[in-house]
Amino acid sequence: MKKIYLLLSFAILFLTASGQGSTYKYESVQGDPLQTRIYTLDNGLKIYLSVNKDKPRVQSYIGVRVGGKNDPAETTGLAHYFEHLMFKGTQKFGTSDYKAEEPLLNKIEELFETYRQTTDEAKRKEIYAEIDKVSQEASKFAIPNEYSKLMSTIGAQGTNAFTSYDLTAYTEDIPSNEIENWAIIQADRFTNPVIRGFHTELETVYEEYNMSLTRDGRKVYEAVMTGLFPHHPYGTQTVLGTGEHLKNPSIINIKKYFETYYVPNNMAICMVGDINPDEVVAIIDKYFGSMKPKDLPKLNTTPEQPISQPVIKEVMGLEAENIAIAFRLPAANTKDAATLEFVDYLLTNGKAGLIDLNLVQKQKVLRAGSYSSPMADYSIFQMSGTPKEGQTLDEVKDLLLGQLEMLKKGEFEDWLLEAVINNFRLDQYYQRQEYQYAAYLLLNAYINDVKWEDMVNKINYQARLTKKDVIDFCNKYFKDNYVVVYKKQGTPDDKKIEKPQITPIPTNRDTESAFLANIKARDVEPIEPVFLDYAKDMSISKVKKDIPLLYKQNTTNPLFSLYYIFEMGNNHDKMLGTAFSYLSYLGTSTKTAEEIKSELYKMACSFNVTATNERVYVYVNGLSDNFEKAMALLEERLADAKADQEIYNNRVKDILKQRSDAKLNQNANFNQLVNYAVWGPNSPATNILSESELNALNPEELVARTKNLKNMKHTIMYYGPLSEQQIKEAINKNHAVGETLKPIPEPQKFKEQETNENKVLLAFYDAKQIYMAMVHKGGLYDKSIEPDRNMYNNYFGGSMNSIVFQEMREARGLAYSAGANYQRQGKPDRPYILNTMIATQNDKMMEAIETFNDILNNMPESEKTFSIAKERIITNIRTQRILRDQILWNYLSAIEFGETTDTRKELFEKIPDMTLEEVKAFQQKYVKNKSYTYCILGDTKNLDMEALKKIGPVTTLTQEEIFGY
Question: What per-residue confidence (pLDDT) applies to 15?
Fold first, then answer.
C-alpha cells in the first residue's frame, strides 16, 4: 500500500507580529497544519491562536491549570463548585446594586462558616433557615443568569464549562465580529467574580452529585483511580467531591482558591476560527494584560510506587455487569504517552484492532474495547468488556489480557502499524474541518504541558515506531501491575444528599445592569448571512436506472462519502435492523468478515449498512485515493454475503443479552417510558423481532434483505474530490442494481396517543432521582407557525437564558438540567409534540410538576428576555454556514417538508419584526391549559402517590410493557 504520510522535520519559529501599534512575539511550528501562534503576555498569560475561515465564528476556551486534584483535602469538590459560581456575575454584572448587595453576601459567607462548623442537626437547620432568609434579601439585588444574557447578546453558542482533575475550562463559540465584547466580559469575569446565588447553586451541585450515584461508569472510573493512585489526588479524592464536603461548603475557601489559582500565569486563552491573530492578541492584551501574576503553590504529592500485583476492586450498581482493567503510565507530555496512544489503536480502532477482530468480531464477548487517557501527571490505559450470557467477568478479563499478551509477543500483522498511521492521518483531516475540535487540542496541550512542537510532530514520531518498539513498550508497562474493577449488578449502598429547605429567589428577569446595557450599545459591524442556493451549491442529476444523484465536490481535502439512501426502514420491515447488524459479522464467498474489515482499515475507509425507523443508509467513506476499491468491497459485501447459522445463533444470544442489559439502564428505561407515552404499547420502539421470532428465523432470510436492496428505489449522495462525471462513471460501473427498481413498500402505521386528559405513567427504577417528562400531542405540521414555534422554543426553553432554566434551576435549584420544546417530528404528516424534561430528587417531584405547569400555563413575560432570544436567533443565522456534505443533508431535509429553498431565509426575514405578543399568542393557542401524559421513572416507593392521583389517573407500567419484551 502506498503510504499517505510524509516524515517532516519541524522547527520552532520565534516571530513577531504588529497589532494596533504594538509588537507581539509568538512561537509557531513549521509544518503545523493549524498554523498555530502561541503568545505569552508579560503577565504570563498564554494565548493560542489558529485561523479557520470556514465560518465567521470563533471557538474560545479559557483554561485554568487547576482541577479536582488541587482541592483542599477537607473541602473536595471545590474546583467544580467554583466553576458553577463563575456564571453568577461580578461586581459589574449579575447585580443591580453591588454596594447594597455586598454586606448581605458577606453575612451569607459568615453564616456558611458557622454552618459548616456546627454538628448539631437542629442548630444546622436554624442556621440554614437564616441563610435562606438573608439570601432572599440579597436576591433582590441579584440578576440571575445575566452572564448568559451577555453571551446571548453577542451571539455566543455552547456556553458552558467543565472541570477535571487537571483543569477547569470555560467555553464559548462566538461570532467573529464580537471578539472585543467577549474579551470585555471575560476579563471582568476572571478578575472580579462575586459569589452570589450560593445556596441555590449548591442545590444544583447536589443534583449533579445525586445524578452521579446512578452512573455505574463513574463508579468504575473512581475505583480505577483509587487503585492506580493511592497517594495522588487522582485517587484520594474525586472531582465532584464527597457528599459530606458538599454539605459543608466554605465561601472563604472558595475565594482563597480563586485568588491562588485564577492568575494569568496559570491560564491560557485558546481561540480558533475566523480571526486576525494580530488584532486578537492586541485585544486580549488590552483587557487581560492588567491581571497580576502570582507565585503558584506546588502540589505536593508522594510519587506512586510501582504496582507489584493486581489490585482488585469491586463496585455495585444497577446497570449491567462489566469489567475494567487499568494500567498507570507516564504523563501526557512524554514520548511514552504518544506510544501508548499508538498501542491503544493496535488493540481497538473500531475495525481491525486485536480486540476488534479477535474478541468482538468473533463474538467471544458482548462488548470490548480500550482507551488511553493522557493526563498532566500520569496517563491511564484501560481495557473494558461486557460478558455474554453465561460468561463470567474473569473469562472476559482473561480474554482482554490475552490480547495484550499478543502485543507483548509480537503476534500481530506488520501491516497494522502502517494502517494505524494512515487512519490517524484520516482522523486529522476530519478534525481539522472542525474549528471547535482544533481549539480543544490547543487547550489540552496547554493543560497537560505538552510542547506544541511535540503535538504537531506526534504522528511522525508514531510513524517511526517499529514492531520491536511496540513489543518493548508493552513488556515494559503491561505486567501484573494493573487494577481490575469488577462491576457487579446489585443495589448500591449510596447516600444521596438530602434536600435543604430553600425559598425560591426572584428571577429579576426584567432588571438589567449598566454593564449589559453598555455591551448592547456597542457598535458592531453585522455579519451578512449566507443562504443556500441548491441550484448553485450542489447538483442533482441521474445515474443508471434513473437513480437520483445528489453531488457536491470536496475541493479542500481527500475525504469522500458515498451514500445509498432508501426511504424505508424498520417501520417497513422490522427484520431490517437485525439483518444489518448480522451482516457486519458475515464474509463473502472469497473473503472472511475479518479480511473485509482488515482491507478497509488498510485503505483508511469504512462502510456500513444501518436502518432507522424510516430510512436505510448504505455508506462508504474515507480517503478518496482508495474510493473505487472501497466501493467495490462494499458492493461485494452487499451482493455476496454468506449466511452462517453458528454466527446467527450467537448473534441472537447477544441481542437477547443486550435487551436484558438495557432494562438495567436508567436512560434506556426513561426513553422507553417516553416512547410509550407518545405512541402507546404499539410503537416504533417496540416494533422488534420477539425472542421466539429470532429463534425461529432462518438467517438466509436476513441475508436476502441485504441482497434485495439493489432492487429497491433509492437515492445516491456523493461528497468528495471526484468530478461529477467521474463519480457517475464509477457508480454506473460498480453499483449493482436490478433490472427494474421496485417502489418502496408501505410502512406499518403507528399512531401517536391522544392527550385529551391528564394521566400519569409510572415506571420503577431504583435510583435517588426521578426522571420526569410531560408529553402533549399537538396538531399536524404547519409551515405557517414555524417562525412562531422557533421563537417560542428559544424564549421559553432554548438556552440558559430561557424561562425554564431561570425558573427551574436558577430560582429554585430544582434540577441540574431541565428543558421544554414544542417539537417538530421528522415527517410533515406527523403531529407536533410538546415535551418537557427534568431530572430531580424524589422529594422535589411535586414542586417540579407544579412549577412546570405554572410556567407552561402562565408563561412569564419579559421584553428584555424576549429581545435577547430574538437577537440570538438572528445572530446565529447570520453566522451559520452550511458546508460540505451538510448541504446535501440540508437539501434532503428541506424536500422532506416540501421546501425547495433554504428555510432559514424566511425565518431570518420574519424574526426581527416578531413581538412578545405573538409568542404569547402561540403559547395560549398551542401550550396553555393543555393536558399531558406525565412520565415518571423512579423509586415509586418514595413518591407521593396521593398527590399524583390528583393530577390524573395513575398507571404503573412494567418493564415488559415499556420495552415490549
Answer: 65
